[in-house]
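Listing S7. Sequence submitted for prediction.
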Amino acid sequence: MIRASLLTVAIVLGFTAQHAQAHSGQAKVTVTGEQRCITSNGTPPHDIGRFPTRGNPNSFKTQSIKICVDATPAQTGRTVTRTNASGITLTGIMLRPGTAEFYDASSRRGFSRNRASGWQVEGMGGADMLGMDHANAHVDKSGLYHYHAPADVWTGDLHGSLIGYAADGFEIHYVGGGAQSSYQLKSGTRNGGPGGKHDGTYVQDWIYKAGSGNLDECNGAVVEGRYVYFATDSFPFFPRCFKGTVSRDFLGRP
């Protein structure tokens, strides 16, 4: 089993508020029996970008979020990959690194929800065309603000390394360079689809190479006898597969 060291990092954030909107975040974490629940209004404790943008036609809206996960998670011996999000932060913001967009040469924007090409747009690889803000986040059609990757503006306020909980209840930590993903960009050029070099624009540009980092295929590791996930500064950014029992709150379409 891969092992990693938990490191606490403090990041000095720098952000110009003139390009953002201020909102009031509300979040609470409670544990009742075997369930840990996070409720929030879907608003982060930092300013958010101005939406809509050229790459994102949606407007931010406050939400009524209640997400519950296993408070005592255990590995099941199998891996789940189909979820609508990776997890949720302690501040009540959803972690959704993936997208529903695919390369589509017939679309004016170059991508659409037509899956026919098989080349799925990677959230951070397509950050500019998807309208991500300074927090590596944007909003969906319901107005839900969600993170696609860690960013200084919110990881810099951590008291310790715990950022939230995954879809199966295991902890998600952020330790900067102390946790290294084992996914690598493929070499050469794409065979079909959009063509061009494997540069990270699409999920299919990446391949898992066991041992190339210190995390497993789900961005997890055993630390001091406990299995935990990590947020990383490179793909997959947040766990995209899960070793425990996934909460029904993470099943179904996003």
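Caption to Listing S7: primary sequence and predicted structure tokens for the chain studied. DSSP finds one helix and 17 strands in the chain. Helices lie at 152-155.
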